[in-house]
């Protein structure tokens, strides 16, 4: 049990949690954004991150500090918190990113963990090997073995109250990610970053990123706080949270500002092409795109960075509200409409509905059917699995319309896409109170037909008639042969 991480609310695999960071003496509410602060080039003063943006935790690079003579001795002298002017929690990276970029670094895990302890880091990182996507399996296995050695070295290090990251690597091999997660969870380490995500995220390979996260989560324990290394674009945060990630470190707010790019929850805009700001953050309320373009390079970069950070932390708050209200997947669905790659990621997430269902609450406030992806949500799967528990009469009518005043059936049940059949007594229970369009689509009808098939598989003695509202042929084809199907539109209901 990891008593430093407490989960308070769930929705899908997303959760609101409390991460205790004992060395800093603070508790960080998750999901949380950790802005990246370059110790050499500070775009937004860290004190402002805390006071104006509500940032509880940031991340900086300990390896860069070791390699920069003009700041190393001062950080060792006064400590990282005083040097940065930040009184929240500070996580430090070890140089693994530089290792991935340049091929070698001249520091060991034991050395960098000790340095992170001496400068006052609250959460330290060993020197793991971030294996990029699509490499040969032999390389992924070899580098994963090196990462395991780094975790062992970190376990034996003198850390005091400092928390330690246990990165989960494995490239784009789900079985290696799962095994790496299981190994990391078996250590005494504290926070579990899914590593080497930057190439996937930069390439908009959100489906592959979700596959890596879901594989890692299968190996990790439910009480493991999960950090998605390199994730910070507001467009994909809801998706990543729904997959079970708790911490995100963002350099995007500053890096994209440097390139004149303006972040939104549905993508990235170029400042040069903008006539209006679609945002109501302080920067966008006080400036027009023309105003910002007229500034010198440094001021323009600062203004864009502040907007980018405002929109990102606002999305984190929006995600927390969605988890609390039980509509996180509706938020993910809306974000998925902003970019085709996001839709790929959402569909990849729903491929793991069984995994989501394990932590998804059995009761929420509402279920909104907003797209054909909604037919694959864990609530639908759970309803189909529970059909085996129902007592089914010998002669049963399932109908989308009101029950007929006179009939020859033992019982009349409701038939509601995408869930399928259920007794009318359950109509006011979640998720069968779902708001569903009157014009149901093929995916909802097919899911309902799958529910009918599941009911009959569990209760083969029943003679079932289905009264459907003009279902598509593909949905009717999914009904068992023994079912009598009647089109209510042709029968005049």
Outline the structure in words.
Substrate binds at residues 128, 196. Exchanges the guanine residue with 7-cyano-7-deazaguanine (preQ0) at position 15 in the dihydrouridine loop (D-loop) of archaeal tRNAs. The chain has 493 residues and is of the alpha/beta class. The chain folds into two domains: 5-358, TIM Barrel (Alpha-Beta Barrel), CATH 3.20.20; 386-492, no CATH class. The chain has 22 helices and 18 strands. The protein has helices spanning 46-53, 62-66, 69-78, 80-84, 96-102, 109-119, 137-155, 174-185, 198-202, 206-219, 234-242, 252-258, 282-286, 289-294, 297-325, 328-336, 340-350, 353-357, 378-386, 442-458, 473-476, 488-491, and strands at 5-11, 14-21, 26-30, 32-35, 57-61, 89-93, 123-124, 163-164, 192-194, 226-228, 247-250, 261-264, 267-270, 395-399, 411-416, 420-422, 463-468, 484-487. It has a five-stranded mixed β-sheet with strand order 16-15-14-17-18. Strands 4-11-10-9 form a four-stranded parallel β-sheet. Strands 1-2-3 form a three-stranded antiparallel β-sheet. β17, α21 (473-476) and β18 form a beta-alpha-beta unit. α7 (137-155) packs parallel to α8, α10 runs parallel beside α17 (340-350) and α16 (328-336) packs antiparallel against α17 (340-350). The N and C termini lie far apart (57 Å). 49% of the residues are buried. The model has no long low-confidence stretch (mean pLDDT 93).
């Amino acid at each position: 049990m990891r008593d430093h991480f407490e989960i308070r609310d769930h929705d899908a695999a997303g959760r609101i949690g409390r991460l205790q960071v004992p060395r800093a003496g603070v508790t960080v509410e998750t999901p949380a954004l950790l802005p990246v602060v370059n110790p050499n080039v500070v775009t937004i003063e860290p004190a402002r991150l805390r006071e104006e943006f509500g940032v509880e935790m940031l991340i900086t690079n300990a390896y860069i500090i070791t390699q920069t003579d003009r700041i190393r001795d001062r950080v060792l002298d006064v400590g990282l918190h005083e040097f940065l002017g930040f009184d929240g929690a500070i996580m430090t990276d070890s140089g693994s990113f530089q290792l991935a970029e340049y091929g070698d670094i001249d520091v060991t895990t034991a050395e960098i963990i000790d340095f992170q302890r001496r400068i006052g880091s609250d959460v330290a990182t060993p020197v793991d090997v971030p294996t990029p996507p699509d490499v040969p399996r032999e390389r992924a296995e070899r580098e994963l073995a090196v990462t395991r050695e780094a975790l062992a070295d970190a376990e034996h290090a003198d850390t005091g109250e400092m928390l330690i990251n246990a990165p989960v690597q494995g490239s784009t091999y789900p079985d290696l990610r799962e095994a790496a997660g299981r190994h990391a969870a078996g250590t005494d380490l504290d926070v579990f970053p899914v590593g080497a995500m930057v190439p996937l995220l930069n390439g908009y390979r959100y489906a592959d990123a979700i596959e890596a996260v879901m594989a890692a989560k299968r190996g990790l324990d439910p009480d493991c706080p999960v950090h998605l290394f390199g994730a910070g674009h507001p467009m994909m945060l809801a998706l990543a949270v729904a997959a079970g990630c708790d911490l995100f470190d963002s350099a995007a707010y500053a890096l994209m500002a440097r390139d004149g790019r303006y972040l939104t929850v549905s993508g990235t805009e170029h400042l040069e092409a903008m006539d209006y700001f679609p945002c109501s953050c302080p920067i966008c309320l006080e400036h027009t795109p023309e105003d910002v373009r007229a500034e010198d390079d440094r001021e323009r970069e600062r203004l864009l960075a502040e907007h980018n950070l405002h929109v990102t932390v606002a999305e984190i708050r929006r995600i927390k509200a969605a988890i609390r209200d039980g509509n996180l997947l509706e938020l993910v669905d809306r974000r998925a409409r902003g970019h085709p790659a996001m839709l790929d990621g959402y569909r990849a997430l729903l491929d793991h509905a069984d995994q989501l269902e394990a932590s998804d609450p059995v009761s929420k406030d509402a279920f909104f059917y907003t797209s054909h992806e909604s037919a694959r949500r864990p609530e639908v799967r759970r309803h189909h699995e529970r059909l085996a528990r129902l007592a089914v009469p010998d002669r049963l009518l399932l109908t989308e319309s009101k029950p007929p005043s006179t009939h020859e059936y033992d019982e009349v049940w409701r038939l509601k896409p995408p869930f399928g059949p259920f007794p009318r007594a359950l109509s006011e229970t979640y998720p069968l109170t779902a708001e569903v369009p009157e014009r149901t689509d093929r995916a909802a009808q097919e899911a309902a037909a799958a529910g009918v098939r599941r009911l009959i598989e569990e209760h083969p003695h029943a003679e079932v008639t289905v009264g459907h509202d003009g279902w598509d042929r593909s949905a009717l084809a999914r009904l068992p042969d023994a079912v009598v199907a009647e089109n209510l539109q042709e029968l005049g209901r």
